[in-house]
Structure formats: structure tokens, C-alpha cells
Amino acid sequence: MIHEQYLTTSEFAKACGVTKHTLFHYDEIGILKPEYVNEKGYRFYSLKQFATFDIIEVLQKAGTPLSEIKEYLEHKSPARFLSVVEEKRKQLILEQKKLKRMEKLLQTTYDMTKNALSVICNVPYTENQEEDYFIVAPLSSNGAENEDMKKMGEHYEYCAAHQIELTYPFGTITVKSDLEKKIYDRPAYFYNKLGKKCTGEKVHIKPRGKYAVINHKGPYDTLPKSYEILADYINKSNLQIAGNAYEQEILSYLAAEDPSEYIIQIAIEVVSKD
Fold it and tell me: CA-CA distance, 257 to 118, in Å (whole number)?
């Protein structure tokens, strides 16, 4: 009669698609106890317990801790069920958005790194570039690394707190006045590219227009040499500096171990002298 009314632990586990050890654990913590235990200690489950297992499975896959599931099962009601489901639905929506952002970041990084392998390095050229939107953090005027690290930490905390969608690339901005003074090693801002147009006190718009560009290959401390090459190219090409310089890493420590393999693109906004 027992075998006709109940399923053994093995049968119930197989029907649910889990191991017997999972059911043993659920029994131990009191979340899903067998309906019947015989005198030899063998556990048996009834068909109606599939409903309880389904609730556990759905809530657990939605990220609900077993302790919360147990508490819900002990005080189950339609209103409470709706509340739990709505809370988990909101969490899943946020998680889906996070996964989409991560997928976009990985794709952008992949495309950027692949493109870096085919660019011509250390040779200046001009190109028209589109408008970009950056969120920026000011850097110290004296190049103090500790101070800059603190500011960058605050920058990422701000972005996280305001749910600002960041994308690659990231980089630095050297302002026009410093370029004209040939100060190439003291960027004024650190930036992250934004995924869409927006406004705000920390938003910087990179103008659409003509840029003198060089893909610097080498460690960061050799960047001033590429700035000098680019400045000479601008002068000889009957151009003049019209705006800021934008550095962006297109092949960095993420993909290259040796700093001599890094590729950083420098783009300076220019106009014709005529």
C-alpha cells in the first residue's frame, strides 16, 4: 500500500530532476520533509508535494535564499505570494539589465581589441570623428597618483549610485590650453564613454569634427613623444589646435601583458589655418 501511495526518495528526486542529497538537505532544514517515514527510516513523498517542490525551485532560481523560502512556506498566502513574486520579478529585471550591459561591454572590448591589431601605429593622420558623450572626473593638477586614485574611486561610486550606463573606451582629456603650452603629461580629466546622449554637471561632450590622430604604441610614460609627433604634424599640415586631446586605450593591460604592446589613441580636435 505504501508503494502505491508514495514515491521513494530516489523516485521523487528523479521526477523532480534533482539528487537524493538535495532532498536530504531540504529535509534537514525543514523546507520539504517527506510525507511519510517508515520504521526503518526510509523516506516517502506524496504526489501533492510536487507543488511544494515547484515553489522551492521557482523561488530558488529567482535567487531567493532557502531561509526566505522556508519562511514563506510557513506563512503562505495569496497576498504574500504576490509580494514575493513581484519582488523577485524586479530583481530579475535588474539582473537582466546588468547582463545586457556586461554583454555590451564585452562586445565593445572585443571589437576594440580586434581593431587594435590592424591599426597603423606611431604615424599621424586626420579623420572626421562623431560626437561622443563622456562622464568625467577631474584629475589633480600636480599628477598626484594617490589623489587621482581616490577621485577615480569616487567617480565609479557616483556612476554606480546613479545607475549610469558606462561603455568602453575609457581614457583621459588634456585641455586645449595645456596642449598649446606643450604640457602633455598632465591630463585634466579621466572619462568613461556613455552609452547614450545625456546631460549633467559631470557630462562632457566631445565635438563632432576633424581630429589629428596618432595610435601610440608603447608604455604610458612615452606618450609625450607621440604628442610631439602629432603637434609637428598639425603644424606642417596647415592645421591648428581647435579643442582638447582625447586619449583612449584600444589595446591595454586587459589584453597585453607587456606595456610596450599597449596602444593608446590620441585625437586632437583641429581646424584649418585658412
Answer: 18
Q: pLDDT of 184-242, one tens digit each?
A: 988 999 998 887 888 888 999 999 999 999 999 999 899 999 999 999 999 999 999 99
Give the residue among 135, 245, 103, 238 at the shortest CA–CA distance from 184: 245
Q: What are 111-153's pLDDT values in tens digits?
A: 888 888 889 999 999 999 999 999 999 988 776 778 888 888 8
- What is the chain's Cα-based Rg? 30
Q: How many residues does the chain have?
A: 274
Going by C-alpha positions, the residue among 71, 67, 22 that lies closest to residue 45 is: 22
Cell of 187: 591630463
Phi/psi for 249 (5° steps) reads -80, 125
Q: Please choose, from the candidates 236, 239, 261, 241, the residue with its C-alpha nearest in 3D space to the C-alpha of residue 250.
A: 261
**Calpha distance 61→85 (Å, rounded):** 12
pTM: 0.67
Q: What is the DSSP letter of 121?
A: P
Which CATH number is correct for 6-75, 1.10.1660.10, 3.30.420.240, 1.20.1050.10, 3.10.20.600? 1.10.1660.10
Where along the chain do its domains lie? 6-75, 77-118, 121-272
Domain 121-272, second-level architecture: Alpha-Beta Barrel (3.20)
